[in-house]
Structure formats: structure tokens, C-alpha cells
Design goal:
alpha+beta, 20 helices, seven-stranded mixed beta sheet
């Protein structure tokens, strides 16, 4: 209930003229104050009138009044400026250091707010607020989608910054790891990231002019050049050559490969096997296209697609795994795969690097790329479309994914703007009863 007390106070979801303290004094809330997310009172600089007298100070909120003492606020001088205590149950009086009795409001959460919140948490259909989405003003939904898009991009940026710090601000290595992770396309993303961290670019650069040694490093560090690959592999001439080259390079550079079992194949089509993705990534590297510098030079989506369009060469045109020949194919990236790489690597990398360099042009380009891309097609996007939130571009779909994962899945309705619109409706709960 304390969450709802906070929520109703912050959003003023009560009858301003109908509030009274526990000792019968009238309360008029002029300003609920600034919500404090750190230590100290819950709201700073609130303005309230108590029996017509203006008070300016802080507000503290608890489920029970006795929590004031349980949390030791009575001995904390930072609570001396509290002017009002908002509680569900006033089970005791509160007296400050100077002997002043602290005014308290008890159980002021409106019944309809409690009912609405309960319905949101108990609804068995996702998203639980779907009934009102079609009625929301376009300006409101557009503003919320823009905020969600930025929020999601900020989260990805934080992950990239952390990776850059790991590599002492080496942004080329950071970019390599970020793009490698995206080549895992979800199922193998963690494995690709671990692999890329195990293969520093300064080592890879020494073998760049030797395709066989480069391939040995790519596959060897992935744990794919061991005898456990099976009889078909160990009798394959190309496998044997790579194995020999990798043994030499591993000893020379004291390399430690990742475990072979990290790679997942369940329900993967051969085109998406990790070996093929690694060889596509290697071809980008050999062509000189696996570079943050090259990415920064590209003006739009089409140019990035051309830069990252890649396939396989030689042995891998006729193989998906070692020792098993297949029909010849260059196994080029699909348009959908390229767009996924742009959304998950190019956009956040431009935004993160732009922030690092103080270059707003790069940050603006990141948003522009999302606007140029078609909406993604997945279960989350389709579900929202059924509810009335239709994506116009990839920026919108990123916002919808953020909404689902960070708000709906976590039942963070009290932080959601759509949830707020639902909570403030006196008849919102009737929508559920009408459906049932």
C-alpha cells in the first residue's frame, strides 16, 4: 500500500478539498514537492496549507505511523523539516525534536485507485491496460513512445560504456565485441560476446594477411577446432590444417579458447549455425569493414547495409559444419539480419560514441537510422498492434519492446504513463467486468 500512497501523493489522486489531519485540521495541497529517490524524506519542498496556514517543507510517507520510529527517523536530524506525515494507518502520534507534534493524514488513497491497481496486477491478459489504449490521445502515446525509445537506447549505451571501460576506452575493440554479440541473434549472443572478448584485435591484426591463420583464430578461440568435433571433422583436410595452425597460434599468444558447449544449435537452421556466423564476421574483418571508423563514415541505413553485407568464401561455401559437404552457396546475410545488426549495434554504438565524444550529430544520426528502418516483426510488436499501438518504424518497435520488458513484465504500472491514465479513471475497473 505504501507504493500507492507515494503514487497518489505524487500525482495528486485525491480530493484536494477533502483532506483532513488525524486531529481534524483541514489540509490543502498546493504542491506535493519533489520526489526524492535517495536517502531522506520522500518528498522535498512541498507546500501545504493546514487550517489555512501555509507550510513549506518535506513530506514523509509510511504504511503505519509507527514506521517513523521503526526506521529511526526520530533520531535523524534530516527529518526535522518534515511538515506532514502521510500514512495508511495512524497507529501512533509523532513528535519531533523541538516538541512539535507532526500532522498526519491517514488512509487517503481513493477506493477507485486501489481497485484499478488491483485489476492491473491481477489481469490475465497482456497488457492489462489494453482496454484504454485506443482512447488515449495520439500526442500522449507519441510522447511516451519517444521517451521509451530514448530509455532503451540509454540502457544499451550504458552497456557499451561499461565494455569500453573494460578495454581502457578502446572503442574499436568495444565495437568488435558489440557487433559480434549481435551476430549471435539472441540465441548465441552471450557466446559471441565471450568469444570476442577472448580474441583481442591487436592479436588478430598480426595474422590479417593470412586467411588460414585468421580463420584458425576465429574458430579456434570459439572452441571449434578440437577432436571432439567428431570423426567427420577429424578426417576433414581443412579441419586438420586449421587445427594445426591454431595449435601454433595458441601457444605463441598463450590464448585460451571459450568452451565449445557455449554454442547452441537447438532449432537453428543451418544458415544460422555459429560456424557460418563466425565466417561471415571474419569476411567483414578481412574486407576491412569491421571497423567503428568505417561505420562513422556511413550517412544512412542503405550505406551501412552495403558496408555490412557479407557472406562466406572457399570451404564454407559448400559446408555448414566440418566434414559434411552441402550445395554451394555464399550464405549472405538476409535483409532482416542486416536490419537487426543496425538496430542492435550501429544505432547504440553511434549514440554511445557520440555521447563519449560530445558529438550530438552522431546521437541525432542514431535516432535518424531508427526512423529510416521498417518496423520489426515479432510477437511483442504484433501484440501491441492488436491493442491499438501500431509501430511506424524501428524506433517505435524498440519503444514497444522497452514497454513490455521494463514495465509490463515487471508490473511497473505505477511508472508507466499508460498505467497512470488507467489509474486515474474512476470507472476503469468497469472495463474488466464488461469483458467478463
Amino acid at each position: 500500500m505504501e507504493l500507492l500512497l507515494h503514487y497518489c501523493w505524487r500525482h495528486r489522486l485525491f480530493t484536494p478539498s477533502g483532506l483532513h489531519t488525524t486531529d481534524g485540521k483541514s489540509i490543502e495541497v498546493l504542491d506535493p514537492g519533489l520526489h526524492n529517490h535517495n536517502a531522506g524524506p520522500d518528498f522535498f519542498n512541498a507546500k501545504v496549507k493546514i487550517d489555512g496556514q501555509l507550510w513549506v517543507g518535506n513530506v514523509e510517507i509510511h504504511t503505519r505511523a509507527s514506521d517513523w520510529y521503526a526506521h529511526h527517523h526520530d533520531t535523524d536530524r534530516s527529518y526535522d523539516n518534515v511538515i506532514l506525515h502521510v500514512v495508511e494507518v495512524a497507529d501512533t502520534d509523532i513528535t519531533l525534536h523541538n516538541g512539535r507534534r507532526l500532522p498526519q493524514i491517514e488512509g487517503y488513497v481513493p477506493t477507485y485507485v486501489v481497485d484499478n491497481y488491483r485489476q492491473l496486477l491481477q489481469a490475465d491478459r497482456y497488457p492489462p491496460c489494453y482496454q484504454i489504449i485506443a482512447e488515449l490521445p495520439p500526442l500522449l502515446t507519441h510522447a511516451w513512445m519517444s521517451a521509451l525509445q530514448t530509455e532503451r537506447l540509454e540502457q544499451k549505451t550504458n552497456a557499451i560504456r561499461a565494455e569500453a571501460e573494460r578495454w581502457n576506452d578502446d572503442w574499436e575493440q568495444t565495437f568488435f565485441i558489440s557487433l559480434a554479440r549481435s551476430f549471435g541473434f539472441g540465441l548465441n549472443s552471450d557466446a559471441f560476446e565471450q568469444w570476442a572478448r577472448a580474441l583481442p584485435l591487436n592479436i588478430l591484426a598480426h595474422q590479417r594477411d593470412d586467411r588460414l591463420q585468421t580463420e584458425a583464430l576465429f574458430l579456434g578461440q570459439a572452441g571449434m577446432l578440437h577432436d571432439s568435433e567428431g570423426d567427420a571433422a577429424t578426417h576433414d583436410e581443412h579441419f586438420v590444417h586449421l587445427q594445426r595452425e591454431y595449435a601454433f597460434l595458441q601457444h605463441k599468444y598463450r590464448l585460451t579458447p571459450i568452451e565449445r558447449k557455449r554454442w547452441r544449435y537447438l532449432r537453428l537452421r543451418p544458415q544460422n549455425f555459429p560456424q557460418i556466423r563466425l565466417m561471415q564476421l571474419m569476411q567483414l574483418y578481412l574486407d576491412g569493414h569491421l571497423s567503428l571508423r568505417r561505420l562513422l563514415e556511413q550517412p544512412d541505413v542503405e550505406s551501412i547495409e552495403q558496408l555490412w553485407q557479407t557472406g562466406v568464401e572457399g570451404y564454407w561455401r559448400t559446408h555448414y559444419v566440418f566434414g559434411r559437404e552441402s550445395a554451394s552457396s555464399d550464405k549472405r546475410l538476409s535483409r532482416q539480419a542486416l536490419q537487426s545488426l543496425i538496430i542492435n549495434t550501429a544505432v547504440p554504438m553511434l549514440f554511445a560514441y557520440g555521447r563519449r565524444q560530445g558529438n550530438e550529430t552522431l546521437c541525432d544520426k542514431a535516432f535518424a537510422l531508427l526512423e529510416q528502418l521498417q518496423p520489426e516483426d515479432n510477437n511483442i510488436v504484433r501484440l501491441w498492434a492488436e491493442c491499438g499501438l501500431k509501430a511506424r518504424d524501428a524506433g517505435d518497435t524498440q519503444a514497444l519492446i522497452q514497454l513490455k520488458k521494463q514495465y509490463c513484465d515487471r508490473h511497473e504500472c505505477l511508472r508507466c504513463r499508460i498505467g497512470y491514465e488507467y489509474m486515474r479513471r474512476h470507472n476503469a475497473a468497469d472495463l474488466f467486468s464488461e469483458e467478463s
